[in-house]
Task: structure prediction
Amino acid sequence: MIVSRLRLKNWRNFSEMDIPLRQRQFIVGPNGSGKSNLLDVFRFLRDIAKSEGGGFQKAVKNRGGLSKLRCLSAQRDPEIIVDVELAEAMDTEPVWRYALGIDRERPGSRQLCLSFEKVWKKSKLILDRPNQEDGKDPERLQQTFLEQINTNAEFREIARFFDAISYIHLIPQLLRHVEFIQGGIIEDDPFGQGLLIKIAKTATHTRTSRLNKIEKALKIAVPQLQQLRFERDEDTGQPHLAALYTHWRSNGVRQREDQFSDGTLRLIGLLWALLDSDSLLLLEEPELSLNSGIVQHFAPLIYRMQRQGKRQVLISTHSESLLSDTGIDGREVLLLSPGQEGSGTEIAADIDDVRPLLEAGLSVGEVVLSKNTPQNIGQLDLFE
Ligand SMILES: Nc1ncnc2c1ncn2[C@@H]1O[C@H](COP(=O)(O)OP(=O)(O)O)[C@@H](O)[C@H]1O
Ligand SMILES: [Mg+2]
Result:
């Protein structure tokens, strides 16, 4: 399943937005334009629906409370709305729609309340809160039905989907030396520390098949790489990844993950994540600290893995290299631009002066860059 549409009102720096989402969606914008805030919407839904330690109150509290969440420019109409549509695949009618409203705190109540919670199944409204019981006992609005097993039976699929969302902001340094961090992994492992443990826990057959796929994909970006294998340290039993690299002097050089380059480790983490589940994957600026040679391969690698794994992936980025692949469709790029009244949001393919450039064969990277530097816009005439 994929999130095919997202509507927001008063969510952090987005006062209002309504955008379709593709299976691979790049979220592009300068620093402070709201890329992380946008990804956080999906982490918020996950935090509500999480089977362990989830819930609406905690999800808001962990974000610093309502005043931090609500858009600063929301004055007369302060309700926060998060509204998503889920479809089986791209370009198909949505199967589910889940919408949630958060209002100001009720006077006298220390707990936050929902202003509404609605669920549609194939456009039929199947949950419409506040309902009669909520009217009799308003404290019920302190919890979503989504987070409660005894109230979400009719739309458990949505709860499972949100619960399975993962967010990765891979930090290769943390991924190495797994023996030091075992037991010390941050909740939900946003930094990818637990990758080796995850790989170790995967059934042998699945693990081998995934590592083979990753090995094939990696060879595109790291041509010297020959083999990628899982192994355990003979003395300590610690899990490791080992790679065989071709070398001009010998038959090959074996390395373990603590010797891999940051780029290789990041790619492995990313590719593993793409194969690991079929739920939504959020990737935070995968280009950080990598050379542009490797970053250029990201987009096609994701595409290649998606054919195998079918996982939807939302990628925040401000890397031109990452967007230099001409296989990226203008619909796959959401452009964010900071503004006084909250960030502007536009799908690249919907922008009149961008579309012809993409159709002429320029990559999104080239066009987006020219959009960010207005003096280049004059060159658009060349294509008319
Ligand atoms: N409640 C809010 N209302 C308005 N703007 C906000 C709110 N919360 C955060 N911001 C703004 O959002 C911006 C940060 O967005 P962020 O998602 O971190 O950007 P990026 O990831 O693109 O660098 C900051 O400029 C911050 O001031
Ligand atoms: Mg950010």
Summary: The chain has a mean pLDDT of 87. The first helix runs from residue 35 to 49. Residues 167-278 form one domain. The two ends are 40 Å apart (CA to CA).
